[in-house]
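Morning!

This is the sequence you dropped in the shared folder:
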Amino acid sequence: MKGFHHRDTETQRMDVLDREGLLPSPASGRRAGDEGLCAETKLGYFSTPLTLTLSRLRERGFVRCFSKKAFLCVSVSLIKLLAIRLSCQKTAAKSLVMWLMVFPAQAADVLHLYNWNNYISDATIARFEEKCACRVVQDYYSDNEEMLAKLAAGATGYDLIVPTGNAMEALIRQRALRPLDKSLLPDLKNIAPAYLDTVFDPGNKYSVPYAYTLTLIGYNSEKLRELQLPVDSWAVIFEPRYLEKIKGRVTVLDSQRELLAAALKYLGYSANDTNEDHWQQARDLILRAKPYWAAFNASSYIKELTVGNIWLVHGYSNDIFQADLDAQKAQRGFRILASIPKEGAVLALDSMVLHKSGPRPDLAHQFIEFMLGGRNSSELTNLIGSGNPNLAARQYIQPEIAQSPAVFPDRAQQARLEMLRDLDRHQRRVLSRIWTEIKLR
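The structure's back. Tokens below.
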């Protein structure tokens, strides 16, 4: 509250607490006949109003507004006021120690961000750190399943996570997320309506769209042109008649959902098809193609494309963008291009969400509002090639990138894109068995 930052005297600070109903009454720390009790006994009674005030401060969001200096000021003032009401200065001194032990000062000015690999630039992070006078500590994941598994295993302390829609759906169902305070996000208006109010989070109670990627075909322009291979169909990934020409030069994502989705789309089914017979058909298609692939790879394939070891990938659009930039910078003599298969592909809308275990929801909201700014959001596209749902960013995006269908697909291409939905427990078990069979055979 502004009162804690702009009022100078102890009395004025206490007035703010009183007006907000945050101070306990004299009776809350006393009991009949306690006047004759020793200070140590009164200390036991004193913990009740302190604990009550502590919980009220948390509920009303006062704590995250305090600077460390202001928090200490309020703590001392509150102890003094309560001590006067309890007529015990010795108790006040001991209670101040107890207060600071039970309710430590504001968490360190560090935002803990759990994000995808290669999904924000160092320049963007540095600018936010300067703006908020804080540090950003990042952990990374390369697949939604990896992120969900880490959280399920007990990982905590992340203020902000950037899950894809189907993973966010799982987190919401697990009640693992903190609702947004939209009053702190005035620039939410910058997000295109098409990316709001999704089936994953109706009304955007928990999420703010961050960026999107397409899962498509990436290829070495020179090699595939020489071999006259098609680049507009998943056939080049799955059909032996094409793969035999590039055996050992192909990688696919090490992601059960993404690879199954590509196989299902090639077979003419929805990426969200859960018919187990269709899954078996997709499994057979994958197993037939597997001997021709070099690896299942969700991370190092960018480098392998860049140096020319791999010529064809099933990969993410922003990774393919990065591989092309690296190849041009190294003057490799070829381009790494992207193509949306005519059968369709997966669009992954990644959103910023607050995890319940995060100690700094205030910094998380600041970061979200920062990334909603047009210039800041545009760096996701200009520097790493992510698709951008932020309308205010469009004016800052480089023209060549703005014209790329792998970044901004046209309406006809959008009609062939699907966002993956979450699976139930039975479907996950079935898919896990299929995936194990695929990897072991």
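Headline: The longest strand covers residues 207-220.

More detail when I'm at my desk.
O.
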